[in-house]
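Subject: design request, 261 residues
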């Protein structure tokens, strides 16, 4: 088993999240993030610590407990507890920003994007990812229910899965472009990722990951035995989805943007 992004994620978090974060981490390889960089919604700092080869200048998150974990990982020079629509930084301070799987959880995205625009320098890079408008239709149980004519039950399942995922937005490219344009950003590049097969793995590993939740509550860590022997079959099952790369259509979408005004 290679000591790559997938393995480093799988040995420290539930499989569904590890697969997703490993794929997203790989997209940052070769991406230039001018300094200083802000991580909007940094959480516990795990993603930044496993993705970036340098310490980011600032991380911000509204929740105190994840920030305590982030402090121990030392992935950021400065950590701040704040909401995204009231960032405690000067105007035009950052040369780049990232927000990994964060914006889909925020009810009032527009206010957050406007505030992010304020703290970014002219022509700054902004990189983020989010569930796409294919997220719900790619769910395996939903697809099965629709195939057998149970559309209403499929819609209920989609609503429930979105609820447990704490999603407020699973939007199309057009919706994102318009939203970003209003806030003063333009989309330079984007790509889909996570095929229906990869998404089905994420979906089912949500349920198979219940023991990881118990381990986290009792022992303070997601994976009780992060050994290669224990995770051998998990890694074998998920590696093909880690390696599949960009997709013509995908459950998630990755954006590289610029501040234009």
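Subject: RE: design request

Done. Sequence follows.
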């Amino acid at each position: 088993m290679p000591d790559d992004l997938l393995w480093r994620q799988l040995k420290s978090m539930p499989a569904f999240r590890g697969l997703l974060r490993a794929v997203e981490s790989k997209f940052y390889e070769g991406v230039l993030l001018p300094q200083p960089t802000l991580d909007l919604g940094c959480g516990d700092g795990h993603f930044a610590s496993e993705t970036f080869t340098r310490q980011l200048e600032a991380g911000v998150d509204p929740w105190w407990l994840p920030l305590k974990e982030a402090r121990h990982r030392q992935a950021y020079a400065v950590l701040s507890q704040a909401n995204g629509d009231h960032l405690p930084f000067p105007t035009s301070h950052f040369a780049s920003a990232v927000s990994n799987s964060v914006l889909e959880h925020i009810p009032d995205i527009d206010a957050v994007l406007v505030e992010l625009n304020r703290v970014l320098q002219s022509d700054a890079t902004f990189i983020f990812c989010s569930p796409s408008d294919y997220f719900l239709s790619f769910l395996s149980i939903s697809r099965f229910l629709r195939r057998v004519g149970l559309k209403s039950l499929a819609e209920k399942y989609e609503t429930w899965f979105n609820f447990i995922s704490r999603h407020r937005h699973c939007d199309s490219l057009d919706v994102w472009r318009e939203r970003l344009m209003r806030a003063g950003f333009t989309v330079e590049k984007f790509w889909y990722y996570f095929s229906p097969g990869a998404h089905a793995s994420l979906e089912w590993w949500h349920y198979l990951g219940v023991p990881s939740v118990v381990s986290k509550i009792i022992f303070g860590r997601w994976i009780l035995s992060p050994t290669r022997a224990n995770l051998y079959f998990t890694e074998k099952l998920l590696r093909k989805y880690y390696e599949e790369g960009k997709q013509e259509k995908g459950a998630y979408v990755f954006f590289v943007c610029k501040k234009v005004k």
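The chain has a mean pLDDT of 94.
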